[in-house]
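If your schedule permits, I should be very grateful for your opinion on a structural question. I would ask you to consider whether the tokens describe a fold that such a sequence might reasonably adopt. Thank you for your consideration; the sequence and its tokens are set out here.
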Amino acid sequence: MIIFLYVLFGLIAGIFGGLGMGGGTLLIPLLTIFLNLDQKLAQGINLISFLVMAIFSLCIHYKNGFLKTDGIFYIIISGICFSFLGSFLVAYLPSKFLRIAFGLFLLFLAILEFCKLFRSKEKNNKK
């Protein structure tokens, strides 16, 4: 049963990751809620799976002409620097704090998406 859940969660994360929506936003809650994994362990699993999924997704997006590389150097450099900072910081933070912070982050994203949805409906109604 557990292997089935791992495969199912990988499938879900892979689909959303391939769409460019971040499979980790689903994978981490799935692993912590349904498999009762520690937050740090779930985040580590997410990072490993993300690397593999990102490589395949990147190749396909490149092949389809969906990549724009303007300014990518600055994003990569700042991403690498802050990834180091974040990975060192997470070693000192309790899993409970990370779980709450991740939940608040997802809540914030949901609120932003709802606001965008209502704004786009208002714009469509004015036309």
Q: What stands out?
A: The chain has a mean pLDDT of 88. Residues 113 and 119 are 10 Å apart (CA to CA).
